[in-house]
Amino acid sequence: MNHYLVVFDRSKGQILHHQRYKDRDVALRARFSEERKRHDEPDVEVVVLGAASWDSLRRTHGRYFKDFDQLAAGARD
């Protein structure tokens, strides 16, 4: 299992940074560090997500990879 640190700007609908970690604890420490750096950016979301691969993550957590129009189109389907 891989652990992906994802820094996502909700207002822009884009990933600002991502990094893969093998060790969950290291990934979580990176997350907390990133959250401290961005504490004054309320639209930035910092998460660690587990997945077998980046492609798997794209399938299971599509909201981080689609723009607003793509998400809206999916909601209508």
Structural class: alpha+beta
Written as H for each helix and E for each strand, in order along the chain, the element string is EEHEHH
Q: What is the topology, as strand order, of the major beta sheet?
A: 2-1-3
Helical run tally: 3
- Describe the global form: flat
Helix share bin: 25-40%
Gyration radius, rounded: 13 Å
Overall average pLDDT: 89
Strand content: 25-35%
Whole-number count of domains: 1
**End-to-end CA span:** 32 Å
> Would you count the extended β strands for me?
3
Which runs of at least 5 residues are low in confidence (pLDDT < 50)? none
> What's the main sheet like?
3 strands, antiparallel
Describe the structure.
- With 77 residues, this protein is of the alpha+beta class.
- The protein has one domain.
- 39% of the residues lie in helices and 31% in strands.
- The protein is built from 3 helices and 3 strands, in the order E-E-H-E-H-H.
- A 3-stranded antiparallel beta sheet has the order 2-1-3.
- Strand 1 and strand 2 form a beta hairpin.
- The radius of gyration is 13 Å and the shape is flat.
- The mean pLDDT is 89.
Features:
flat; alpha+beta; single chain; 39% helix
How would you summarize this macromolecular structure in one to three sentences?
It is built from three helices and three strands, in the order ββαβαα.
Spell out the blueprint of helices and strands.
Elements: E1 2-9, E2 14-21, H1 24-37, E3 44-51, H2 54-60, H3 68-76
Antiparallel strand pairs: 1-2, 1-3
